[in-house]
Design a protein that fits this description.
The complex is a heterodimer of chains A (about 260) and B (about 240).
Chain A lengths: L1 E10 L2 E11 L4 E6 L5 H8 L7 E6 L2 E2 L5 H8 L2 E4 L11 H12 L4 H14 L15 H13 L5 E5 L7 H18 L2 E5 L3 H7 L2 E6 L2 E6 L3 H4 L3 H7 L3 H14 L1
Parallel strand pairs in A: 3-8, 3-9, 6-7, 7-8
Antiparallel strand pairs in A: 1-2, 1-4, 4-5, 9-10
Chain B lengths: L1 H16 L6 H41 L9 H40 L2 H7 L4 H5 L1 H6 L3 H22 L5 H9 L4 H27 L5 H31 L1
The chains are: A alpha/beta (about 260), B mainly alpha (about 240).
GO molecular function (chain A): ATP binding; ATP hydrolysis activity
Keywords (chain A): ATP-binding, Nucleotide-binding, Transport
Pfam family, one (chain A): ABC_tran
């Protein structure tokens, strides 16, 4: 479980996060949603320790991040898997080498053990016969799946995904969403996803945190988001005609 | 104040580069790869430039000696001194600032833009040690490149001298042996090691701390070349003053 209390972050005097408090539960897919510029990426980078924050606290299963020593932070980070928006695959390595990288860095496994584990996770994300391809030879969807494989190869306790569906077609987006949700349940990990994709919100949003102008505007789940009266949320989530119709159908069905 | 901030960040980067070392089995591969990219990959251009510039130095010297009282072996002597003292360590380092420096800045800068450095940091890896330290270690073989440049520069001078008819082979060989001071070689290699450190760290700094996109990677490469060249020239002056005065 990840707990965030009163998180403040500024850049050059401009406050981007204005006191966010929330928690992300284990074994659930937690979504952070909000408009561009609402502070989602800054929030997730604070959670990962990539940005220092001025005020507040972040704790991972009771361990307050800012109070950890450098070694403890490094150990904690080896328990974190991250799927970046663009994949962030290492250009100079093949797909198999990319996935094997965390194992090489943090385990004492033999080469054959590492190869077996890489085969296993690549199969888990439905990638076979892609081992020797370079990232530049892989499609956007493949790159995302490789990034997920790299993130889970070391059995992380926490999985972060920054816009995992950006640039993907709707069908591939659903595959990626389902894959993340399955992995979350299968490995019982705390998953935090930063997303714009309303389909993801409706499909896998077991917990949803809506950010607006650096503040937590609303918190709920894929079920409660249909019922909310919060205009900021409804304006954002139901901005398209399709989503308005989906909501209408849901309300009619409930009645 | 801004420049002080940059200088401070640069020295903090160097300190951080030596902390939290990457696993040796991984580091070994990175060092070998960087030796291939930075050292072996530069030999061709260094050999080509050294040979022909050595020849040009010889021709220029020979053409400017019109006094019959000046011995012909002076051409070989002047070529040797120019090549060992300045051309090989300094001139080649400026060329390397363009070739190796822009490679380092653009490769690290691209990793920054595509969040690969963030990926390393999230995994708990000291990205500065992972990215910069292997470059620093591989460039400690830079004196090997410079010794090849020295040899080929003098060889190029000999070829130009003999085949251009400026003096005989015997005169040239006497010239390159005349008044040889072994400390000049040590001086050249001290400079080379210092320049190697500059070549590894300044372009890395500009790549690592760059912000923006593809356009900024290009700008960072240019800035890295300019600053590497400026620092090399300044250090060349101070080292020469300290070691030869």
């Amino acid at each position: 479980m990840i707990e965030v209390k009163n998180l403040h972050k500024s850049f050059s005097g401009v406050e981007v996060l204005k006191g966010i408090s929330t928690s992300f539960e284990k074994g659930k897919t937690n979504l952070i949603i909000g408009q561009s510029g609402s502070g989602k990426t800054v929030f997730i980078k604070c959670l990962l320790g990539l940005f220092n924050y001025e005020e507040g606290s972040i704790s991972y299963d009771g361990k307050i991040f800012s109070k950890l020593t450098e070694d403890q932070k490094r150990n904690l980070r080896s328990e974190i898997g991250m799927v970046f928006q663009g994949g962030a695959l290492f250009d100079s390595m093949t797909i198999a080498e990319n996935v094997m990288f965390p194992l090489k860095m943090f385990t004492k496994q033999s080469k054959s053990e590492m190869e077996d584990r890489v085969d296993f996770v690549l199969k888990r994300v439905n990638l076979v016969d892609a081992h020797n391809k370079m990232p530049s030879e892989a499609s956007g969807g493949m790159q995302k799946r490789v990034a997920i494989a790299r993130a889970i190869v070391n059995n992380p306790k926490y999985l972060f995904c920054d816009e995992p569906n950006s640039g993907l077609d709707p069908k591939t987006s659903i595959i990626i969403d389902n894959l993340i949700q399955e992995i979350t349940v299968e490995y019982n990990i705390t998953t935090v996803i930063n997303s714009h994709d309303m389909n993801s919100v409706m499909e896998i949003g077991e917990k949803i945190v809506f950010l607006k102008d650096g503040l937590k505007e609303w918190e709920g789940s894929k079920d409660t988001i249909f019922k909310t009266d919060n205009t900021a949320v409804t304006n954002f989530v139901y901005s398209s005609e399709l989503m308005k119709k989906v909501r209408q159908m849901y309300i009619e069905e409930k009645q | 104040m801004t420049y002080l901030h940059y200088i401070g960040t640069y020295f903090l980067m160097i300190v951080e580069m030596f902390r939290k070392p990457t696993k040796w089995s991984v580091m070994k591969q990175l060092i070998l790869k960087d030796i291939d990219d930075l050292i072996i990959g530069s030999l061709g251009i260094v050999a080509f430039i050294s040979f022909f510039v050595g020849g040009v130095v010889t021709i220029q010297t020979a053409l400017n000696i019109s006094n019959p009282l000046i011995p012909k072996y002076l051409v070989g002597f002047a070529t040797r001194q120019s090549v060992i003292l300045e051309f090989a360590p300094t001139f080649i380092s400026i060329i390397m600032a363009g070739k190796v420096g822009s490679f380092i800045t653009s490769s690290i800068g691209t990793m920054r833009v595509t969040e690969q450095i963030d990926a390393l940091e999230v995994m708990g890896i000291n990205s500065l040690n992972y990215l910069v330290f292997p470059k620093f270690v591989s460039l400690m073989l830079y004196p090997f490149v410079i010794s090849i440049a020295m040899f080929l520069g003098i060889l190029g001078g000999m070829a130009a001298c003999v085949y251009g008819g400026f003096s005989s082979l015997e005169d040239y060989i006497i010239g390159i042996q005349t008044d040889f001071i072994p400390f000049h070689i040590i001086y050249a290699f001290i400079k080379t090691v210092v320049f190697a450190f500059v070549l590894a760290t300044i372009p890395s700094y500009h790549g690592y701390y760059m912000k923006g996109g593809a356009l900024e990677v290009g700008k960072a490469s240019t800035t890295a070349f300019v600053w590497t060249a400026v620092v090399i020239i300044l250090l060349n002056y101070f080292l020469t003053d300290m070691l030869l005065s």
